[in-house]
Specification:
By secondary structure, the chain is α+β, with helices and mostly antiparallel strands. It is built from eight helices and 14 strands. It has two domains: 218 residues, no CATH class; 80 residues, no CATH class. A six-stranded antiparallel β-sheet has the order 3-4-5-6-7-8, covered by helices on one side. Strands 1-2 form a two-stranded antiparallel sheet. Strands 9-10 form a two-stranded antiparallel ribbon. Helix 5 packs across helix 8 and helix 7 packs antiparallel against helix 8. The longest helix is centred in the C-terminal third of the chain and has 13 residues. The relative contact order is 0.13.
């Protein structure tokens, strides 16, 4: 068993308690947090083993996959979850699970090298740390050597070259600031994750060379409590053409737009448009706002932040779906 200790942290007005394992001290990490900041370097969390740029998860950090993924200017992502020892996730219906104190969610964004697709350029890693009943967000930008990442709080724009069809495209990739993290992850006065709902985790994944259900695998490996009824809902993969057009479109809107367009979201005070897939079409507001949704997407204003490009494939999907509602 790895003993844990706690340190109080305040980041962008969000207070919380971060639980860290003793292994951080053993690896030479900072043992005491300075008030008001997260760890200045990503390496302090010991997320990766070996060369950090290889993105090989260290012990205690387990990979997970989502069926429907947030569009982020065609960046690829690695997702990891860390739970303190002797703790497990608990299902709460088909929505977000109950996360134990000390949970760390890790999302790393990277692009394939346009000149050598076997290589990649890691741009940023975002952390969500749950402690003291609250989530604290930290964003880390990787150095050119791909050996570590530094905490940034005011956001940053990074020129990125990546393949786009038959040509190489250069974009100004936007790293969010603390305020922007709260804009998307805010739920009322609190922060919460967006993607890892049980319906979005309930999918097949490749583990040890075999295709298995991700939630069933988590039960077998001890990440998820077994004395609970397994969720039955599944969010569609909006890239999967075997799913219905409605399933794909509602999944796309749910993962890309519903974090703002929900009762406790940032857009709740301006509109009664609720885009989560669990909301029925009749109650979503989609029928009366078809033209506005399409116009906002065409202008690159929906999603409002987090992208520099219009997602052409997503736009065509939603356009095709909205046409069926006329």
């Amino acid at each position: 068993m790895i003993p844990v200790f706690k340190r109080v942290v305040v980041a962008a007005g969000i207070s919380g308690v971060i639980w860290l394992s003793q292994s951080f001290r053993e690896r030479g990490a900072i043992a005491v947090y300075d008030p008001g900041i997260l760890q200045p370097q990503l390496s302090a969390y010991a997320i990766f083993k070996g060369a950090p740029g290889e993105l090989i998860p260290a012990a205690g950090y387990e990979p997970y996959e989502l069926t429907a993924q947030l569009f982020s200017d065609y960046a690829q992502k690695q997702r990891l979850i860390h739970l303190p020892e002797n703790t497990k996730l608990s299902a709460q219906g088909n929505g977000l699970p109950h996360f134990p104190e000390g949970t760390i969610l890790v999302k790393t964004f990277y692009y394939a090298d346009p000149e050598a697709v076997s290589k990649r350029r890691i741009i940023e890693t975002r952390l969500l740390i749950f402690s003291g009943g609250q989530w604290t967000a930290g964003t880390y930008v990787w150095n050119a050597e791909q050996t570590d990442a530094e905490l940034v709080t005011s956001g940053k724009k990074i020129a990125v070259r990546h393949p786009a069809g038959n040509r190489i495209q250069i974009i100004a990739y936007e790293v969010p600031d603390q305020h922007e993290c709260a804009t998307c992850h805010g739920s009322g006065s609190a922060m919460q994750p967006i993607g890892p709902e049980m319906r979005n985790l309930n999918r097949q994944v490749l583990r040890d060379g075999k295709q298995v259900n991700q939630l069933a695998n988590w039960q077998e490996t001890g990440l998820l409590h077994t004395k609970q009824q397994m969720p039955t809902a599944k969010l569609a993969d909006y890239n999967d053409t075997t799913a219905t057009l409605e399933q794909r479109a509602r999944a796309y809107l749910s993962i890309n737009c519903a974090h703002c367009h929900r009762p406790a979201g940032a857009a709740a005070v301006r509109t009664d448009l609720f885009l989560h897939a669990a909301v029925s079409l009749e109650k979503s507001g989609i029928l009366s706002r078809r033209e506005k949704i399409l116009r906002k997407m065409e202008q690159g204003k929906m999603p409002k932040i987090g992208t520099a490009l219009v997602h052409d494939e997503g736009l065509e999907l939603i356009r095709a779906y909205l046409q069926t509602l006329e």
